[in-house]
Structures are given as structure tokens and as C-alpha cells.
Amino acid sequence: MNAKVNENPQVMRDVKEKFLRYYTVTLNNYEVSGHYLPNPYVIEVDATQ
Amino acid sequence: MAEYLIKNGFVFDPVLGIKGDKADVAIKDGKIVETTALSSPKVIDAAEKTVMAGGVDIHAHVAGPKVNIGRNFRPEDKLFTYKPKNGIERMQGGFSVPTTIRTGYNYARMGYTTVMEAAMPPLYARHVHEEIRDTPILDQGAYPVFGNNWFVLEYLKNHEIENTAAYIAWLLRVTKGYAVKVVNPGGTEAWGWGLNCENVHDPVPYFDITPAQIIKGLIEANEYLGLPHSMHMHANNLGNPGNYTTTLDTFKLSEGIKPNSKFGRDQVMHHTHVQFHSYGGDSWANVDSRTKEIMDYVNSHDNITIDMGQVTLDETTTMTADGPFEHHLTELNHLKWANTDVELETGSGVVPYVYSPDIKVCAIQWAIGLELALLAKDSMRIYLTTDHPNAGPFIRYPRIMKWLMSQEAREQQIDAFKHKDKVIDATNIAGIDRELDLYEIAQMTRAGPAKSLGLAHMYGSLVPGLEADVAVYDFNPNEPYVPDEIENAFSSVRYLFKTGVQVINDRQADPLGEREGQREPAGDA
User: Fold this and answer.
1) B201 touches A: beta carbon within 8 Å
2) DSSP 3-state helix, strand, coil percentages of chain B (rounded to 5)?
3) Are B120 and B193 found together in one domain?
């Protein structure tokens, strides 16, 4: 799923803070890269308002 | 790509409203097309056979770390189940937790072509996608779990729907997930303190929030985003006597919320494996079926869909993000237990389980699952699942079809129960004479789950333009049959096409059945 939303600085700040403070992996090492999906199918929704 | 014309089969398609009429199905360039669009097709003779779209499984645990723990810590599940490489078929192994290869092959043998992994821990999403990549034939998606996630708990404590939605959008994108899954909301987090949330008003330790707030908030965030699928619910208090009241309380949280999705679904909550959530009584000594109360609610509220979680009476491997439940289970059966905590996100447990027909409770569970489907007024809103492998392995779907379609088959099974009279007293199954037909089976296994998932524009029907996922079974619905013929026919599809590629021919893997290339991304539907 690729759901588009308005930019949300608070959520992105919270994400960065939680990764720095609690996670055992870094944010850069969290995302599943395209390498893992050789045959992807993306459904997009637009929730920007 | 090759063109195919599947001729003269008895077609069952709830979207087209075809109830076993003779019809031809045309395939070209990976899609279903009008028969007039073909130039020189290869003709498949489907006379005297049943033709349906490929099956769609809305809820199974088939890929990822907990599945692999099940494989690793149950060598006994692999004993005598290995099959060596044969032709283009690769080596296969495992029964309740099969290898990825066997998972793909066995679903295909039943005519299934789309399967959703029902619980993806976000931190370990890579493992899930690695197993999906190694599962042949099937189209798959995975639901990341949100019901015990620290971000979600903190945002929803203050009812911050927009922030919750932004976080969901981010997590779905980075984990390549499909839908919002909720498992024992708050309860798995509480398990970190050795506690649980046993009803929707039980506060989550430290976070000062209740399961009801989590559930309602996630439904609202799901609809804020307008995702294809609704929030996918595994409620609190799973598997405990008397839990049907918790289930009804959970259902009621969806009241007054309307779907906001362009993908054609009507529900705002899909509640999964409802069999495990429909128990009366207050102990295992007096547990009974409360399917009438549950189905009265579902039948009268069209913004809910459910799936069965049917017990198949096998030895299996339970696995769930409901960590406290798995501890409860290992205390009950004293078999081995695996348990983990996934940092800020979720937890998980794995325990083997034997659903024996000689145990009264297992037989009552068997009856409850079937009652749900047999008491349903709309088979488009209840789907055939076993919560694989929790209530039994998915390879038993054809057996469940037999039980649903034949009162004689159900009576045979009831007669085989050691505590037959007690089971009849505690359930409604003996008084139900309804027999589902193949049209209703197609609703429960094709059109219904595809619609609930918001994927009816791709799967679940033979409408021209959809993916050419087509199954042809050796079953003539117009001839008299004994119940076992249903199970035999639907266990071994005669021909199967996945995205227009013939993957099974004459019940054998087709040597040309290699899946082709990458699809184009879809737009905002």
C-alpha cells in the first residue's frame, strides 16, 4: 500500500526519536527495500486533504 | 502469452450471478476477456466439470518469523512428510507448517491463487517478504500488526486520528504491507508486564488507554486513509469460555462508522477466526456455542465481515501475535512454547496443539466454526479459513467444504466423536440441516474475500478485465455424489491458471508454468 498523506512533521519527529531512543536498529536499516520484492504490485490511495 | 478457451464448464461466479450454468471462459494476455477477443486459443474441455475463479484466502499464517519458528521447533511436523524433487516440482516438506514451496503448491492444488499473510511484525517484515518471494504461484500480501504498537497507543490515547493515519501510511510504505491488522489490542503489550487485556475496557498498563479506544481509533484511521481493506480484527479474550460477550462488544465499536473506500468494500471491520471468539460458559467444563448470538449480530449489521477459523481435528501448530494466549495454551496442554517480544511493536508465541475428536472441547470448537457459516444469511460476508495453521492446516479447506455442503458428512463426523451427546447438547450443529451449494462456496472462497479485501477489481470473479486466475475441478454438480467426492475434487484441481499461465494441467504441475514479469503499478482506483 502506498497511502499518500499530508506532510506530518510531528509523526516523522516521533519516528526518529523512537528509533534513536528505543529500537535496536536504525531507521535507515528498517525499511524493506525493493530488493526484497522482485515482483511488486503497488496500490495507491490519496488521503491528502 | 498463450490464449485459452475453457469450454462448456459449469461456471459458478457470484459477481456475474452465474449459478452453475454452462459457459465459456476466455483468457488472453493474463486477463479474462470476452470469447470474441480470442484469435487461435488452446481449448480446454471443461465439460462435466466445475469452473470458478482462483480462490482467495483472506487470513493465513504462511510467511515470516513465527512460521519459521514453527518449522524449526517442530521437527516432528516434518517426519514422513517430505517429498523429493519430481519433474519441475521442487522438494517439499512439512504438514501444519509446510515449506514455502509446499505452501505455494498445496494452495495451487486446491485452486487457490491469492493468499494474505495475516500478521507481519513490522520489524521483521524483511523475513516475511523473503518467504513470500520464495512461495511459488501465489499472489500474496501481508498485514502489519498495529494493535500493540507504541506509536499507535500514544496517539490514540488522545484520539489523534490524523497522526495515527500518517504513521500507518508511513509504516505500510516502509514495510510494504497491505492492511491494518490488530491482534489482542493492548493485551500483547500488557503481556510485557505478564498481564493481559481480557475485555475491551481493560486498561493497558503504562499507556493509559483501553482496547476499545485502540479498536475504534484504528477503524477511524483506516477510513481516514481510505485503504482497500478494512481494519482486520483479532479481538481480546480469544479462546476463553464466555468470550462471546467480548466479541459482541468489539463488533459494537464499529457501529455508526461508514466505509470510506473507493475499492468497493462495505465493511469497516473484518473480524477474523470468529470460531475462537464464540464461546459461552465460564469454564472448559461447561463451554458451549454462542454462534446464534454472534450471527444474529453479524446478519443484522452489514458493515462487518468475518471468517471462520474452522477447527479441522488435526495435530497442528498454533502461532499468533497474541503472546499471552500462547502462554495460556502451553499451560493447558504442557507442550513446548516459543515466545518473543518485538520491541515497540508486538509480541508472538508458538505452541503445538492436537485437536482430537476424542476431546469434548475440540469437538465443540469444530461445531462452532461450521455453525457460523451455516447460520450466515449472506455468504458474501463470511469466509472459509482455518486461521492456518492455528485451527488446522489450510489443506483441509476441501474437507470443510464437504462438511458445509453435506449434512450426511457432518453427521458422520458427529457420530465419530467420543463425547457425541455432550457435544450435541453444547452446540446447535445437530439441529442445522442447511447444505451450502457451490455458489455459496464460491462466495465464501472467491468473490466475498476479494470484495472485503478491496481487490474485487483483480480477483474473485471471471469478469472480463480481471486477472486470469481460473480453477477447473473434476466435479459435476448436476450428478448425484457422495460427500467424499466433494473433498477429493476440490483437493486436486484439474486445471489451474494463474494470471493467464497454466500452472496445473491434468492435476500435474505444468512444465511451462513459470510466472511472468513485473506488473505496472495501479493508480488510485
Assistant:
1) no
2) 35, 20, 45
3) yes
Domain range holding B28? 4-53+460-509
Strands B50-53 and B470-473, by their bridges, are antiparallel
pLDDT at B510: 74
The A residues from 30 to 49 touching B (CB cutoff 8 Å) are: 30-32, 36-47
Q: Cα–Cα distance between B64 and B93 in angstroms, integer?
A: 17
Give the phi and the psi of residue B27 in degrees, each rounded to 5: -125, 130
User: Is the CB of residue B152 less than 8 Å away from at least one CB of chain A?
Assistant: no
Tell me how many domains chain B contains. Answer: 2
Considering only residues 317 to 346 of chain B, which have any Cβ-Cβ distance to chain A shorter than 8 Å? 343-344
Q: Is B361 among the domain residues?
A: yes
Q: Are B491 and B109 in contact (CB under 8 A)?
A: yes
Dihedral angle, C-alpha B58, B271, B177, B385, nearest 10 °:
-20
Asked if the structure places residue B519 within a domain, the reply is no
- Residue B27 has, within 13 A of its CA and on its CB side, a CA count of 26
Q: Say which CATH number the domain at B483 has.
A: 2.30.40.10
B27 and B128 housed in the same domain: no
- Domain limits of chain A? 2-46
Q: Does B165 touch chain A (CB under 8 A)?
A: yes
What would the pLDDT profile of B52-87 be if each residue is shown by its tens digit? 999 999 999 999 999 999 999 999 999 889 999 988
Q: Is B206 on the interface with A (CB under 8 A)?
A: no
- ipTM exceeding the 0.90 mark: yes
Does residue B202 form part of some domain? yes
| A47 Cα to chain B: minimum distance (Å) | 5
Instruction: Tell me chain B's radius of gyration from C-alpha atoms.
Output: 22
Q: How confident is the model at residue B523 (pLDDT cuts 50, 70, 90)?
A: very low
Does B487 lie in the same domain as B343?
A: no
**B139: CATH:** 3.20.20
The secondary structure of residue B204, as a DSSP letter, is: B
Torsion of CA B386, B373, B443, A3, to 10 degrees: -60
pTM check: above 0.90: yes
